[in-house]
Design a protein that fits this description.
With about 240 residues, this protein is α+β, with helices and mostly antiparallel strands. The chain contains four helices and eight strands. It has a four-stranded mixed sheet. A two-stranded antiparallel sheet has the order 1-2. A two-stranded antiparallel sheet has the order 3-4. A hairpin with a 3-residue loop joins β3 and β4. The protein starts with 8 loop residues before the first strand and ends with a helix.
């Protein structure tokens, strides 16, 4: 039986048929064998006509390997958050104080009754093409909503999160401190992920705010988590 379970798999959102009671948040997630970036909803699904959507179902080793391959890096939490603000300071959302200014969605989030009914006010049930919504003040797209994004910071207290630029000893300490054996990630070290996703709803999860954050175990991939790379000034000369 254990050998049968040793198959590539990932976590997929499967909306329930109706409302669920409190304490049931794991009931809309399924660990599906065969779910991966080519098959986002599991076997039988594909990325056909979704070539411009963000890649999903990528664990930490995947994003780290890709960034290394293309000569780039992953942002620290602080870098990501500053970029998401787009020059604003302390606004509730990346664009200001209203979630839907003038009734218009400015990011791919969940509208309707979470988790069973998405009204798709923003036009999308799951991921949206990159750039489907307006840029922020720095000209960046999809910093909020669509998919969660990995950062290179170990999860800890907000002011203590540690990025890749810190000394090896501090990195090792931060890595160890990120582990919470009582969490769903068990003994896995955890990185900070930012931005929220198409599953963030006002009634359940408001993590499409730039200041919001979540811990993600290194070995875990999901259908609402992706990444973006950064190029720091010292790297520009080599590209």
């Amino acid at each position: 039986a254990n050998q049968e379970r040793l198959a590539p798999a990932s976590i997929v959102f499967v909306p329930p048929p109706g409302p669920l009671g409190p304490g049931s948040h794991y009931r809309w997630w399924q660990y599906l064998a065969g779910a991966n970036w080519r098959h986002p909803e599991g076997p039988g699904s594909s990325i056909k006509r979704r070539e411009q959507h963000p890649v999903v179902h990528v664990a930490w080793d995947d994003v780290f390997a890709y960034a290394s391959w293309c000569g780039k890096q992953l942002p620290t939490e602080q870098e990501w958050e500053r970029a998401a603000w787009g020059g604003l300071c302390n606004a509730e959302f990346a664009w200001g104080e209203e979630l839907y200014p003038g009734g218009v969605p400015l990011a791919n989030t969940f509208q309707g009754d979470f988790p069973h009914h998405n009204s798709r006010l923003d036009g999308y049930e799951r991921t949206s093409p990159v750039g489907a919504f307006p840029t922020n003040g720095y000209g960046l797209v999809d910093m909020i909503g669509n998919v969660w994004e990995w950062t290179d910071s170990w999860y800890g207290q907000h002011q203590q999160s540690t990025g890749a630029c810190c000394a090896d000893a501090a990195q090792a300490k931060a890595r160890e401190a990120s582990i919470d054996s009582h969490s769903q990630h068990g003994e896995q070290p955890r990185k900070v992920v930012k931005g929220g996703s198409y599953l963030c709803a006002p009634s359940y999860c408001c993590r499409y705010r730039p200041a919001a954050r979540m811990a993600q175990g290194l070995d875990t991939s999901t259908g609402h988590m992706g990444f973006r790379c950064v190029v720091r000034p010292s790297e520009l000369a080599t590209l």
